[in-house]
Design a protein that fits this description.
Elements lengths: L3 H5 L4 H18 L4 H15 L8 H16 L5 H14 L6 H16 L1 H7 L1 H11 L5 H14 L4 H11 L2 H13 L7 H13 L3 H4 L4 H8 L4 H13 L4 H18 L8 H4 L6 H28 L8 H8 L8 H15 L11 H17 L3 H10 L5 H4 L2 H10 L5 H17 L1 H21 L3 H17 L1 H4 L3 H9 L7 H18 L7 H11 L6 H18 L4 H5 L2 H12 L3 H14 L4 H10 L25 H14 L8 H15 L7 H14 L2 H18 L7 H10 L8 H12 L7 H12 L7 H14 L7 H13 L5 H17 L6 H14 L4 H15 L7 H10 L5 H11 L11 H6 L1 H7 L2 H9 L12 H8 L7 H17 L4 H4 L2 H6 L1 H6 L1 H9 L4 H16 L5 H16 L8 H10 L3 H14 L4 H13 L3 H14 L9 H5 L3 H14 L3 H18 L2 H17 L3 H18 L2 H8 L7 H13 L3 H23 L7 H21 L4 H17 L4 H11 L9 H13 L3 H15 L36 H15 L10 H8 ...
Antiparallel strand pairs: 1-2
Length: 1481
């Protein structure tokens, strides 16, 4: 904003206007932010611009005017107080012309839009005369636009527009004057037409009264055909329906004239070719426009035919005569518009079907199909084929058209082939005899392409086409399911992500066709899908894998069971909910949760115990025990960092980050040295495991870094040597260049123990040394280096090693570099090994090299010098020969000569045979003998002092600054940058080593957020700490911050408290935030602290009861209640909702009824009634719930209490739904929040009842999105706490399946599978009355309880076990009464929807407790009659009593209530059932 003024005040007008566009873009960016943050920029802009409006400098004044215009355009709220000031100033500037004119004409309508009423009262009548006068000048175009926009802004005041603009200033007369001037040859003002359009929008239906009769004709006569004209006519038609026919006919004449003016090779029919009554000037005008820009105008004319309202005209013949010829036009734009026009108008939905039109339509379709296949432009081909919707199927199914479509299957462009195969797939139903053979052939081609094509692009396209073919041609595919599956499954391992994704898509589609037959392939497919959904390297593969997983479960009915067969699946899905950031993938994960079903949390725990390699979705369990966080103990941070890094290494989907992880590990090793030894059990297993599975490049890097690890940890590597040597043996050939240094490091680390491994590696080393391949010369050098490091350990293998090395020296194919290295190796080995037995074997070749290769003489002489020093007398016999060669070739080597002289004079040698002056004079040998491996080992052998990194408080302050964070996206970016900056500035080298990984893989920054914060916090001074706490408080208080980030900050506060670094943030605030984010474990901690501070606080006690209840700790909740009752002397009647928290609904209902008699105020009565509704809802007392909610609703409606209606709406809706009172339900959902899960849930149910399935799916999708937020927060706590949202996801999924059930009337197999899946899910979910009640209620939308007898009887047993005896009795009663109905008079359904609101039958008839034998028959008869009249059930099976008897005798009913004898009555309550008579006592 500071720099924009340079452009706004530039000397050039064009630059100023471009700068104003940039200012507009900036204002749009800040518009979504909170008012307090964006208003400062508005004020700054205004305070700079407004004073300069009166500047004499045109650049300053005009640029400031443009800035004010942009503020008005973005509706800056603070201008409300400045409106009069700004408006007065702009009105005073109205007489300024030139550069200012356009900006002012833009500002005036925006003033009207900003505040219509003040503008109308104070400025409308002032500005109108000026604008009307401007109409008489050259700037009339801008004036017309300004007048029109002002009218649109004032459309709520049409009388004032009519009074001043139309009546007083005669605007339409002025427009007519412009038209007349155009007839005299003056330029036509197109803006006048736009003004007519805006006035029509403003005064609406009164347009027909005030529009002059001849004006419309003048518009047609003078206005060029343009977008402006069409828009004007559209507005006039909307507000002047009486002119519809006239405008349609005139516009059709104009379009016809445009289409027929251009010479085309066709003859028009007599009906449409006549231009009688068309004046010469009109035709001339059309021709003029065509001459100017004929192609664009023709395209607009064609587009107008289908965008304008011509619904009253049958245009099929018109299209054939006037549009069809343009399909052959040379201009692609015209061909495209003509194609779209034909497709839109040939078969309109509202046109009545007529047999005589069939040949005409067929001709048009034939021509369009020809264009869609043969047009040279790809865009036209795809446009035509994509527009051939199902309404054209009867024409496309003709053999000739199908033949053309099959031609398109081989189009060069994939998109065309895709559209063609989609259309042909639809034709199987209409013309199977012709379509099936060709599609069978195409299917075979696609399978062959997949199997034999080596091209990834070809495989991808074949898989996509196969997917579409499967989706659209179920009849064709069914017989070939197994063949297709085998072909697809063989390609599942394709390395190209796009190919693999499309293969998975095809499998998902074929599963929908194959149904339960896919069950046999699940053991292979599910593990693969589970692996794929963890693949972080490919977003597309993950998204497709989630979708296919849902399709597989849905098509096979295999719900719940995958959680048991694959225990890690639940953890993977929960982890995805927490970490997945891509919205489309999150939606699929959420949907998969619903399809799989809400697994009982107890079963989940059992599965977790069975699974050893489980993934932890919360704070991951560490592999080792590390000390509590302590800023003074630097060893603490590696104990956190190493496990985090190894989790990345253990994830095969994160293979792209392996190298960066190892780099971080090595940085830490080099910084901490031997202090890293305790973490070898954490590090080595994942690293060695990855070494076996990764690519060659990564493996080589790991082996390279392993050298450094071994050099640091020395003999502590022994535990892992067996696996290391197994890897060396397995990957010797592919990683040969990296293995010898590792062997050398191991040799120096182990000492004498290394000898046990030599027999394993010596054969492989010799194989390399004996190789004559040029490609292995680098490997030979590495092996020679390793042999130098082995030293005296080679003593037993000299007879193998020395000949191999000497062959390298003498072989003519060996490179110069290898020969030199071999000679040096012999020299170095001579210092540590006794080579006296090989003196002749070594010296003879060396002497020959000395004689024949001058470049190697220096190295040979140093090696011979070493031999003199080490072998002494054994070398004496070779001295004359060497001297002879030296003399012959005049070779001089002072060191050799000096050593030989000392030897011949029998002088003593010091320092193990090496004199001081000789050590320096043999640089090559002695330098190389102290190799890098040895140096590294010596370096880490000393004491390592870990030094802290300095912490830059200013850099951190910039990262934690929250002053400009307003939107959800801003906060996400804030936590990301803050997390990374904490790692960058961390005082611990272990944490800063992870910076590079965190920049490319953010989850690691999030995982290390707490410890990195701790490491920085301890180094900050008090000022920085105070500022940081202020920023964190702002973040926690922000309404835009997401629950996930709040939970991160809550975790941070808890972590710091555990490490005795409690953050100075109010505990009450943290407790409220934790409860709001459903982090109930944290909330419990803070509420306990609050309770200890104030033990008699009822709010704290209530919160503790509530939170313990949420945490599924009912004993703790009851204990708190008992404590409060006993020690605090609190009257429980004042805290009835405590009973609710403990699910003691009957007690709560009794207390509410007692309190109801004592309450007199309306507000108090409403609270009690809402509480009663909650209790009745939980108890399933739907009749009582419905009656009470109707009473409260009626009273709220009478006094217009919208708040009360919203409070009870979801409870009233539950009662209405369960009773099948759809009219009531419709009334209730109207006031429910559209952004609530309950509101969208009940709207979806209502839409299903009204057979508005697409609308229902929209509501279900909205509910899922809302549950996503809640579920993400709860998953951070545990699955148990996230269970209720998971149940809701299952309910939403089953609502979708209800829709499918209703649509599958002709597919009984699918219906059977849906029922099977529902039962499987129900058996797998938690045995909770409310959960079962809700799920069974959804099932009754399509299935009567008698069709699902098993689950309803189980539900009755569940009710009894949970103490809801009355509900259990009513269920059994209705099941029996339904079975005992007389079959001769089946009940009449109340609706045709086929729904079974069974729970509505659970009414409040006389309780079985009060029935006597004398009244049994009467009661039964009455109940049966009532049921027959009020239910929508069809007649149940005649004799299902035996099945009910079997269920009642099962374990669910054999066992009595807890603490109640099985065969004894309880308070005179007993159930007696006579199956022969159907009576109930």
């Amino acid at each position: 904003f500071e720099l924009i003024w340079l452009g706004l005040h530039d000397a050039k007008r064009e630059v100023r206007e471009l700068a104003s566009d940039a200012l507009k873009a900036g204002l749009q960016v800040i518009a979504p932010r909170e008012y307090t943050l964006r208003v400062q920029w508005y004020i700054q802009t205004y305070e700079i611009a407004f004073p300069l409006l009166n500047s004499k400098d045109e650049a300053l004044s005009h640029g400031s005017l443009l800035a004010i215009d942009r503020l008005l355009e973005c509706r800056a709220e603070f201008l409300q107080d400045k409106y009069r000031e700004v408006a007065d100033q702009l009105i005073r500037m109205k007489d300024k012309g030139g550069t200012y004119k356009k900006a002012l004409m833009d500002c005036y309508p925006r003033l009207a839009h900003f505040a219509p009423e003040p503008f109308l009262q104070n400025y409308f009548t002032i500005l109108l005369p000026f604008l009307v006068e401007t109409l008489k000048t050259a700037d009339r175009g801008m004036a017309f636009i300004a007048i029109g926009e002002i009218c649109v802004a004032l459309q709520n005041y049409p009388e004032r527009i009519i009074e001043f603009l139309i009546s007083e200033y005669q605007i339409f007369s002025l427009i007519q004057v412009q038209m007349q001037q155009a007839e005299k040859g003056k330029p036509f003002c197109q803006e006048s037409v736009s003004c007519i359009s805006c006035i029509a929008v403003a005064i609406k239906e009164k347009t027909s009264v005030y529009l002059p009769p001849g004006l419309l004709q003048k518009v047609f006569a003078n206005s060029p055909f343009s977008e402006t004209l069409v828009q004007c006519l559209t507005s006039l038609v909307e507000h002047m329906p009486d002119k519809l026919q006239d405008i349609q006919s005139r516009l059709l004449q104009v379009i016809q004239a445009l289409l027929t003016t251009k010479q085309l090779p066709f003859s028009m029919s007599s009906r449409h070719s006549s231009l009688r009554g068309w004046r010469k000037n009109e035709v001339k005008n059309v021709e003029m426009v065509l001459d100017q820009n004929s192609e664009t105008t023709l395209a607009l004319a064609l587009r107008t035919l289908w965008t304008f309202n011509f619904d009253t005209h049958n245009l099929t013949q018109y299209i054939k005569d006037n549009v069809l010829p343009y399909l052959d036009d040379d201009n692609p734009l015209i061909r495209k518009e003509a194609s779209i026009t034909c497709l839109k108008l040939t078969l309109r939905d509202f046109d009545p079907p007529r047999e005589d039109r069939a040949p005409l339509v067929s001709e048009v379709v034939d021509k369009l199909l020809l264009i869609g296949i043969s047009d040279p432009e790809v865009e036209i081909r795809t446009t035509v084929l994509s527009s051939l919707t199902t309404k054209y199927d009867s024409y496309l199914a003709q053999s000739e058209n199908l033949r053309s479509l099959f031609t398109a299957l081989n189009d060069e462009v994939y998109e065309v082939r895709e559209l063609a195969i989609t259309i042909i797939g639809r034709m199987i139903v209409r013309n199977p005899a012709y379509a099936m053979p060709s599609l069978r052939k195409k299917l075979n081609e696609l399978l062959n392409d997949l199997e034999f094509s080596g091209n990834s692009r070809s495989n991808e396209e074949s898989a996509r086409l196969l997917t579409i073919l499967i989706r659209s041609s179920e009849t064709l595919i069914k017989p070939y399911v197994e063949t297709i599956l085998l072909a697809l499954m063989s390609k599942l391992g394709d390395p190209h992500p796009r190919v693999a994704s499309n293969i998975l898509s095809a499998i998902g589609e074929i599963s929908m066709v194959a149904g339960e037959t896919m069950t046999q392939h699940l053991p292979v497919l599910l593990p693969l899908l589970i692996e794929t959904i963890q693949d972080q390297s490919s977003t597309s593969k993950r998204e497709v894998a989630y979708r296919v997983l849902g399709q597989l479960i849905d098509s096979t009915g295999y719900a719940i069971t995958p959680y048991n067969d694959h225990p890690k699946l639940m953890d993977i899905l929960l982890h995805a909910i927490q970490t997945e950031t891509i919205h489309s993938i999150r939606k699929k994960v959420i949907k998969v949760f619903g399809i799989l079903g809400a697994l009982d949390p107890y079963t989940y725990k059992i599965n977790t115990l069975r699974y050893d390699g489980k993934i932890k979705n919360s704070s991951a369990q560490e592999i080792i025990d590390y000390p509590q966080g302590n800023e003074s103990n630097e060893e603490y941070y590696p104990s956190v960092v190493f496990p985090a890094l190894m989790r990345v290494m253990s994830d095969p989907t994160l293979s792209t980050y392996y190298v960066i992880v190892l780099q971080a590990v090595m940085i830490i090793f080099k910084k901490f040295g031997i202090f890293c030894i305790p973490y070898l059990p954490v590090l080595m297993p994942p690293i060695l495991s990855v070494t076996r599975t990764c690519d060659v490049e990564t493996r080589n890097f790991i082996l390279q870094e392993m050298v450094h690890i071994v050099s640091i940890v020395k003999q502590h590597i022994k535990e892992y040597l067996d696996e290391i040597f197994a890897i060396i043996k397995e990957y010797w050939n592919t990683s040969l260049i990296r293995i010898p240094p590792l062997l050398e490091a191991i040799a120096q680390a182990l000492g004498d123990e290394f000898k046990t491994y030599l027999p394993v590696i010596i054969p492989q080393l010799l194989e390399v040394l004996n190789s004559r391949s040029d490609s292995k010369f680098d490997a030979i050098i590495k092996v020679l280096d390793a042999l130098k490091g082995f030293g005296f350990y080679l003593n037993d293998y000299l007879h193998l090693i020395i000949p191999a090395i000497m062959r390298l020296i003498t072989d003519t194919h060996t490179s110069f570099k290898v020969k030199a290295e071999a000679i040096l190796t012999i020299g170095k080995l001579s210092f540590v090994l006794d080579l006296s037995d090989f003196t002749s074997r070594i010296c003879q070749p060396l002497i020959r090299v000395l004689e024949s290769i001058p470049e190697l003489r220096e190295i040979v002489m140093e090696t011979l010098t070493a031999f003199v020093l080490q072998l002494r007398s054994e070398f004496a016999i070779f001295i004359p020969i060497v001297n002879k060669i030296l003399a012959k070739y005049k070779i001089s080597h002072l060191v050799y000569e000096k050593v030989v002289v000392r030897f011949l004079k029998n002088q003593d040698f010091h320092e193990s045979g090496i004199p001081d002056d000789v050590t320096v004079l043999l640089p090559t040998i002695f330098k190389e003998s102290k190799n890098s491996i040895t140096k590294m080992g010596d370096f880490f052998r000393g004491i390592v002092v870990v030094r802290k990194n300095p912490v830059d408080g200013n850099s951190l302050k910039k990262a934690w600054d929250t002053s400009q964070k307003t939107t959800k996206e801003d906060w996400v970016e804030w936590i990301r940058k803050f997390s990374i900056e904490l790692l960058r500035e961390s005082s611990s080298p272990a944490l800063s080593a992870c910076l590079k990984l965190a920049q490319v893989y953010h989850p690691i920054a999030r995982e290390l957020f707490n410890v990195s914060f701790l490491s920085c916090w301890t180094e900050l001074n008090e000022n920085y700490k105070e500022d940081l706490i202020k920023s964190l408080s702002i973040a926690l208080d922000s309404s835009a911050i997401s629950p996930e980030i709040v939970q991160v900050l809550l975790n941070l506060a808890e972590f710091m408290e555990h490490n005795d670094k409690t953050l100075p943030i109010d505990k009450r605030k943290l407790g409220l935030l934790a409860e709001r984010c459903h982090a109930y474990a944290k909330a419990l901690r803070y509420k306990e602290l609050e309770f200890h501070e104030s033990p008699r606080n009822p709010d704290a006690i209530e919160a503790l009861i509530s939170i313990n209840n949420y945490l599924q700790l009912p004993e703790a909740a009851r204990g708190i209640l008992k404590y409060a009752k006993k020690t605090q002397n609190i009257d429980l009647k004042e805290f009835i909702h405590w009973y609710e928290k403990l699910n003691r609904w009957e007690d709560a209902l009794k207390e509410y009824k007692i309190k109801e008699a004592e309450t007199q105020t309306e507000s108090g009565k409403l609270e009690i009634e809402v509480g009663q509704l909650k209790c009745l809802n939980a108890l399933g007392e739907w009749d009582a719930l419905s009656k009470l909610s109707a009473s409260v609703w009626g009273r709220a409606c009478s006094i217009r209490d919208e708040v009360a209606k919203k409070r009870i709406a979801h409870l009233a809706a539950a009662g209405a739904w369960n009773l099948g009172l759809w009219t009531n339900l419709e009334e209730y959902v109207k006031v429910m929040d559209e952004y609530s899960v309950e509101g969208n849930f009940f709207r979806a149910i209502l839409a299903i009842h009204d057979i508005k399935f697409s609308k229902s799916r929209e509501y279900i999708s909205k509910a899922r999105d809302l549950l996503d937020i809640e579920l993400t927060a709860l998953v951070g706590e545990s699955y148990s706490r996230a269970y209720q949202p998971c149940v809701k996801l299952q309910m939403l999924c089953e609502l979708e399946e209800v829709i499918e059930y209703k649509n599958s009337a002709d597919n009984p197999e699918r219906r059977r599978l849906i029922l099977k899946m529902w039962r499987r899910r129900l058996k797998g979910c938690q045995r909770n009355v409310e959960i079962w009640q809700g799920l069974l209620g959804i099932h009754t939308l399509v299935v009567s309880p008698w069709e699902d007898m098993e689950m309803w009887v189980k539900f009755a047993g569940l009710c009894r076990k949970n103490g809801q005896i009355k509900l259990s009795q009513r269920i059994l009663l209705k099941l029996l009464l339904g079975q005992a109905r007389p079959t001769e008079s089946p009940p009449k359904p109340l609706s045709s929807s086929g729904e079974f609101p069974f729970i509505s039958l659970i009414d409040n008839h006389s309780s079985p407790d009060t029935l006597s034998p004398n009244t049994t028959t009467t009661t039964t008869t009455t109940t049966t009659t009532t049921t027959s009249q009020s239910s929508s059930f069809t007649t149940p099976p005649k004799s299902p009593s035996s099945s009910l008897r079997n269920f009642l005798s099962s374990s669910d009913f054999e066992s009595g209530r807890k603490g109640t004898p099985r065969n004894k009555g309880n308070n005179n309550k007993r159930i007696s059932i006579n199956f022969s008579k159907g009576s109930f006592i």
